[in-house]
Amino acid sequence: MPKPTHTTPDEAAAETRNEYTVDELARVSDTTVRNVRAYQDRGLLAPPEKRGRVGIYDDTHVARLKVINHLLARGYTLSNIQDLIMAIDEGHDLRSILGLENAIGGRWSHERPKTYSLAALAQMFGPQTPAQLARVTELGLLERHGLSFVAKSPALLEAAAAMAKEGIPPRELLDMISVARPHFDAIARLLVDLVVKRLDRYDADALPPPTDVPALVDAIWRLRPLAAVFVEGEMNRALETAASAYLGGRVATILDRKLSDEAARQAGAPDLQGDGDKA
């Protein structure tokens, strides 16, 4: 009677493992053979198991290629991906790394971009010359997509349109943005430094330990809205101060003029009481 065979976990995994040639791997991973070779050359992808002259890949290669494709779609360069892959190999979880990246570099606004046609922009701001549209795109207020334009902040664009309807020329609005933007950029850098300063205690050339990443992500997400509140509060204070100073100066000027006019009028008026005494 034959002895029952016992399959080890490693043997069971090997039996169920999918295997691929390089062409098959490229096809199932939605990439090209050329990319597979390039990723191997850069150390992003482990070499295949050699069986004679044929390289055999498995599902771990498919999983790694999916990670690479995902990161490329998010805008990472191959150099960035290489750093992330090294971090993963050192024990970091990709989700925690991307969570940290998203907490720091993700959008700070919940606005959804909106597409505007040339006709819609003309209705909002009046007919625009190519030079005016070029300036708007240079400032990043609109991005051109064929014959349409996409605003990352529709609220900002619509506020500008409302101001234009109140008689403020769009050119002056663009001038104001050009002057103010460097100041906003400087404030933003200060606040971002303040929010992410919690990373300063780690080596500048390394990621925080995997055990620290979740707490850091949570802390940064809590600090982000507080930074926005700080900016809004300070901006409101500055607007009130500037408006009060302008209004106060304007009122003072008007009062000075009124008083001067009154003094001049009185100085030029005949002295009726004096004339009566002389009579």
TrEMBL record:
Q: Which domain of life is it from?
A: Bacteria
Q: Which InterPro entries match?
A: DNA-bd_dom_put_sf, MerR-type_HTH_dom, MerR_fam
User: Does the keyword section mention Amino-acid biosynthesis?
Assistant: no
What Gene Ontology molecular function terms does this protein carry?
DNA binding; DNA-binding transcription factor activity
One family from Pfam that matches here is: MerR_1
Q: Which species is this UniProt entry from?
A: Burkholderia ubonensis
Question: Domain HTH merR-type: where?
Answer: 19-87
Arranged from A to Z, the UniProt key words for this protein are: DNA-binding
Matching entries from SMART domains are given as: HTH_MERR (SM00422)
- What's the name of the protein? MerR family transcriptional regulator
